[in-house]
Hints:
This protein is an alpha+beta fold. It folds into two domains: about 1-65, SH3 type barrels, CATH 2.30.30; about 70-160, 2-Layer Sandwich (Alpha-Beta Plaits). The chain has six helices and ten strands. The chain has helices at about 1-10, 50-55, 60-65, 85-95, 135-150, 160-165; strands at about 15-20, 25-30, 35-40, 45-50, 60, 70-80, 110-115, 120-130, 200, 205. A five-stranded antiparallel sheet has the order 4-3-2-1-5. A three-stranded antiparallel sheet has the order 6-8-7, with helices on one face. A two-stranded antiparallel ribbon has the order 9-10. About 20% of the residues are buried.
Amino acid sequence: MAGFILVYTRAFAEGDRIRFGDTEGFVTEKSLLVTRIRTLENILVSVPNSALLSNNIINYSALIREQQMPVILKTTITLGYDVPWRLVHETMIAAADATSYILKEPRPEVWQTSLDDFYVSYQIRAHTLHPEVMMATYSELHQNLQDYCNQAGIEILSPHYGAMRDGNQTTIPTDYLPASYKAPPWNFALVFYPAGRTLPGRWTAPG
């Protein structure tokens, strides 16, 4: 019965990339009793159809096969408020355009998904018709984001680390820095208080 229901609902077809529970991979065989899935690690998993019916099935391939509607890939980086957001958008879109299997149309988009205390979250959303190489596409996209951000002088780092350091050292690889680059000096300031003045913490400046 479970096999007939799966056929009727058109949940997936052979060759589709699907995920249910902790299992993700490609459907290699579909029968009335069992479905066989080759995982991303090339492990063959045989799943009773009754188990599939009791889980939500995510199908990455169905809309592409039936309607030529691409899958959206998305990944997020966080940057400080000092980085111009228009530059971030331009850089992230250029990185997506340079990535294999990502479509030029529809255009990649950048969404600012949150404004937190110390940083802004930027999410790149790009389209692909090739979910079968999704992990490799993500990996190349991440590589391009690193390269293009470095070329644009954008440091991808933890805002907490950025808040703790003085800023005299950069995390951008030296290959991306101009030959004339010099690290800025440390910044510090001397503050003088009048003798006898009560300071924060009820400490009195000596006379």
